[in-house]
Specification:
Elements: E1 7-11, H1 21-36, E2 40-47, H2 63-74, E3 81-85, E4 91-93, H3 96-104, E5 108-112, H4 119-122, E6 127-132, H5 137-143, E7 155-158, E8 177-179, E9 198-205, E10 212-214, E11 217-219, H6 222-227, H7 232-236, E12 240-245, H8 251-259, E13 262-265, H9 267-271, H10 274-282, E14 284-289, H11 293-298, H12 305-312, E15 317-320, E16 334-337, H13 340-352, H14 354-369, H15 371-383
Parallel strand pairs: 1-2, 1-5, 2-3, 5-6, 6-7, 7-8, 9-12, 9-14, 12-13, 14-15, 15-16
Antiparallel strand pairs: 3-4, 10-11
Helix pairs in contact: 1-15, 12-14
Length: 384
């Protein structure tokens, strides 16, 4: 390791749901970025027994393990990565004993969404930081008494750029939330020079967990936001392709999407591996980023790690405003909207001045999202 290097542990969801490559990349950016800074980095993912697929399979014969090990091998981190099952010593990659040994020499844990809960591992690590990538929902679940493991941590970070600021409706729970943009390892996400093959695109899960109501306000999901944008293809005259995880039983929404000329593609086929996800993003003309309605209504300032990948690829982003205000320089390369009419105007602006928006998109990533700068600041804040 280089002088001043530390041993760090990054925990997050990589293979809990195999082939959600966007979620995998959101964790990989931290691991790869910290390695580029010269640190020794251990990747760990803990999954519940009922998350092992197919049901009843041992971990080493599961789809989760196959996906996890393929991904770790692809990026040369297979010897410093561990997938384990909650409440057991079942592990693939590093053995459980090797993971515990690594924890004893770890300086800091960055626990994305608090996914690592194993007490034997946690108790060894002096500094434990909870990294919140679902702002608003995380704080409201905690307020409602759900055990997210926040009490196991000494530092708290969030990609909700407005958490704790005036105008944000999210309760802080008495904690100091350090805000951060999501990192992008630019060496793994170069600007794409080829003409796009896809039109405006995005990758979404239509629904996830349930909505939350707080003080008379319903904080919902992508489905709730998308419904306000159904008319966008007609208003803008542009095509939109969505790699969409949606249940076939959502017949009303599926019919509305088809009626309004939204093209849906299978997210596993389009972006189910780290490489296919990167190709899908880089082959797109731009991203239309639709936020969960909970992010919009809470004004939490959520910024998408997926949008960060588009910007790094030199692909402009048209993003729904979640209240990031002055924290982000919107206008060129990164355009925002609050209404479907504003979204249509932003889409047309991207098309009319496309080369300029592509150039500024990459500059946005280089200046604000570069993992070296972002993660350097993260470590300064967490370790001070």
């Amino acid at each position: 390791m280089t002088e001043g290097a530390m041993t760090l542990m990054v925990a997050g969801m990589v293979a809990g749901t195999p082939h959600q490559a966007g979620a995998s990349w959101s964790v990989l950016q931290w691991v790869l970025g910290l390695r580029e800074l010269g640190h020794e980095v251990v990747l760990v993912e803990e999954i519940a027994p009922n998350a092992v697929v197919p049901a009843g399979a041992s971990l080493d014969r599961s789809q989760n393990a196959r996906y996890f090990l393929d991904l770790a091998g692809r990026f040369g981190i297979d010897r410093s990565s561990c997938l384990l099952v909650t409440g057991t010593t079942q592990a693939v990659g590093m053995s459980y004993d090797s993971l515990v040994e690594a924890a004893h020499r770890t300086d800091c844990l960055l626990n994305i969404s608090g996914t690592l809960k194993d007490e034997r591992v946690l108790e060894c690590i002096p500094v434990k930081a909870y990294v919140d990538i679902d702002p608003g929902f995380t704080q409201l679940w905690d307020l409602q008494g759900h055990d997210l493991g926040l009490g196991r941590h000494s530092k708290f970070m969030t990609v909700g750029l407005s958490i704790g600021a005036p105008g944000c409706r999210v309760p802080t729970g008495g904690r100091e939330w350090i805000t951060t943009l999501p990192p992008v390892t630019l060496s793994h996400w170069p600007a794409v020079g080829e003409p796009p093959l896809w039109p405006f695109t995005t990758v979404v899960n239509w629904r996830g967990y349930g909505s939350i109501e707080h003080e008379g306000v319903l904080y919902g999901h992508k489905a709730h936001s998308f419904r306000d944008l159904f008319a966008l293809p007609g208003l803008s005259g542009e095509d939109f392709v969505v790699a969409c995880g949606i249940d076939p039983g959502e017949t009303g929404d599926l019919e509305a999407l088809s009626l309004h000329r939204w093209e849906l593609v299978n997210p596993i086929e389009a972006a189910g591996t780290a490489d296919s996800y990167r190709r899908f993003v880089g082959s797109s003309l731009a991203e239309l980023n639709v936020a969960k309605s909970g992010y919009v209504r809470s004004r939490c300032g959520w910024f998408s790690d997926r949008s960060a990948c588009y910007l790094a690829s030199g692909r402009p982003v048209v993003a729904q405003d979640t209240g990031f205000g002055q924290a982000l320089p919107a206008g060129e390369g990164f355009l925002t909207f609050s209404t479907v009419e504003e979204a249509a105007a932003a889409v047309l602006e991207v098309k009319e001045s496309y080369p300029r928006h592509c150039k500024v998109a990459r500059l946005f990533a280089e200046e604000l999202l570069d993992s070296g700068e972002v993660l350097g600041r993260v470590l300064e804040e967490v370790l001070r």
